[in-house]
Amino acid sequence: MARPLPLLLLALGLAAAAKSPYQQVLQHSRLRGRQHGPNVCAVQKLIGTNRKYFTNCKQWYQRKICGKSTVISYECCPGYEKVPGEKGCPAALPLSNIYETLGVVGSSTTQLYSDRSNLRPEIEGPGSFTIFAPSNEAWASLSAETLDSLVSNVNIELLNALRYHMVDKRVLTDDLKHGTTLSSMYQSLPIQIHHYPNGIVTVNCARLLKADHHATNGVVHVIDKVIATTTNTIQQIIETEDSLESLRTAVAASDLSSLLESEGQYTLLAPTNEAFEKIPRETLTRILGDPEALRDLLNHHILKSAMCAEAIIAGLTMETLEGTTLDVGCSGEELTLNGKPIIANKDVLATNGVVHFVNELLIPDSAKTVFELAQESEVSKSTDLFRQAGLSSHLTGSERVTLLAPVNSVFKDGLPVIDSNMRNLLLNHIVKDQLSSKYLYHGQKLQTLGDKELRVFVYRNNLCIENACIAAHDKRGRFGTLFSVDKMLTPPTGSVMDVLKADHRFSTLVAAIQSAGLTENLNRPGTFTVFAPTNEAFQAMPQGEFNKLLGNAKELANILKFHVADEILVSGAVNALVRLKSMQGDKLEVSMKNHVIHINKEPVAESDIMATNGVIYAVNSVLQPQASRPQERGDEPADPALEIFKQASALSKVSQRNPRLAPVYSRILARMKENSAGF
Asked: Within 13 Å of residue 569, how many CA atoms lie on the same side as its CB?
């Protein structure tokens, strides 16, 4: 019975999805090389080196490995060879034993040493083996001292070294699972396998170059290094390396030793003594004396999985044990962390992971003071301001605070002069308690060190505290949090009426509000947005219209209510267009154009004058509700005589061509005369 087509397609899809990352990039290379004939693979070669890679689609189009340009070359896919006079690589490599296969796949030096060490009979004879064979270049890259120590003891050291590269069973790339170990044929010592999502496979951090070469008695994989046995844990490496003495002390103080000697697969970015010496003594003493900060510092240097240098051919983000992320990348031969080439020694293999020595200490935000966070951010000018005002102690100690720091662009014209008023204002930029912006809610009240109460406003496109809106993600330090904000905060000083009365620009408006009986409304607790006409706005009105308005309390109240909305809208919440319902009932349209707020298409003279019960915008025109605006021509009521005249004019021409319409034309003329007599 035939299988249903959907189930067959599903099975094929699952089979495709089950391919290992290595097989996926190999398949991609086959597709890119197929125009050159059968079994041709496209590989990317790093210019100026012999390093070649099968790559995925993204890297193919980027044409870069570790930021360096590559060229495309075409060669036989693993397991195939050319035939003179034919296109591509149509012939499979002859199937022979492992010893003979080594000479065919570019590992003739391994073949030579297996002959010298008396390994040859074993890998020529019956059995099922896997050998991770170092390439000829890998052997040549060994130091003369190392190579001599191996070759001069051919019956012992060289044989042991080669048998450590072997497994007594057939293992293909699909069997090389990430994070697994294989028992070698030398004292069953483990070989660590890592199979990364980008298709790179490493064996004790040596990159697999040519894989899955079948032999009659096993399989050959060519690797780019001679691998060595590994018996030390990460903790033991720390304890024996002289350059990690400072790290050793820090680990002992943090009780992380048990983790670093336990089973697992970690990457330790081990800061050297030099890295610790670069940190200001005061900062280092503070962190080492604070168990929580020290733990965060060390966990920030430990990645959750083993990452060999050879697996990194482009930038990627890695998660640390602290829960933060690091950008791990490469630039040519150098590994980079957060874009900086600070890795001094790479791929020191341990039984439970890999160690890279770094010459800079990576201090996470969680181990920093708020002052340190601000100094390293786009609010560094704010730190100068707080320091000049003598407020640094609030930002460097163990006080739980949140700093609302204006971004540097706020001070493009220079820092303000520090006086008592400015110092008080800066105190109101420091909120009591350590906050997180994602937990703030609309209407929340925050207490400052200056004893002011600040309100939180949550909008669709912004999160604001009074008139200042958060301009970047939080930075959460050891005891405090940094909020970068887009302007200096202006805490409210009184109700809407208090603010209007205190500003001479609004004296006419204050009188109008009092005349209309709205004073109590704007003094009570609430959430008002007031578009306040200045004296200039009232002076621009025709005198007769102005007098008429003041003489009609009901109309005056109606006009004034049109300038007030019953919700708080600060300028940072205005992106394109926001519609507010006025207290008069009609809609107000607030928009942003060329960085200027407009209300009903009229530019605002000043934004975000904060009051305890609202916000005020100064406008230089008196806004008119729809019903109070002069009617446009299209909205005028129809004039009966005019309409009749229009009809008559049109029909007179038609009736001249069509006698049957003449009576209609006569009746229209009669109606026009009757209406004219009425006017």
From this structure: 27
Residue 323 covered by a domain? yes
Angle of helix 144-151 relative to helix 108-116, nearest 10 degrees, comes to 40
Q: How many domains does the chain have?
A: 5
What's the confidence (pLDDT) of residue 59? 83
CA distance 192 to 306: 10
Provide the 10 A C-beta neighbour count for residue 45: 16
Q: Percent of the chain having pLDDT more than 90?
A: 77
Separation CA 179–CA 261 (nearest Å):
17
Containing domain of residue 591, as a range?
Answer: 496-619
User: In the sheet that 64-65 helps form, which strands lie side by side, from edge to edge?
Assistant: 52-53, 40-46, 68-76, 64-65
Rounded to 5°, angle at Cα 234 from 231 and 238: 110
What are residue 81's phi and psi, to 5 degrees? Answer: -145, 165
Model pTM score: 0.79
State the CATH number of the domain containing residue 602. 2.30.180.10
Residue 560 has pLDDT above 90, yes or no: yes
Verify that 107 and 56 share a domain, yes or no. Answer: no
Please indicate, yes or no, whether residues 373 and 461 belong to a single structural domain of this protein. Answer: yes
Q: Are residues 353 and 387 in the same domain?
A: no
Sign of CA dihedral 436, 453, 375, 296: negative
pLDDT value, residue 666: 55
- Nearest one of 639, 598, 637 to 621, comparing CA atoms: 598
8 Å CB contact between 270 and 358? yes
Phi, psi of 676 (to 5 degrees): -65, -40
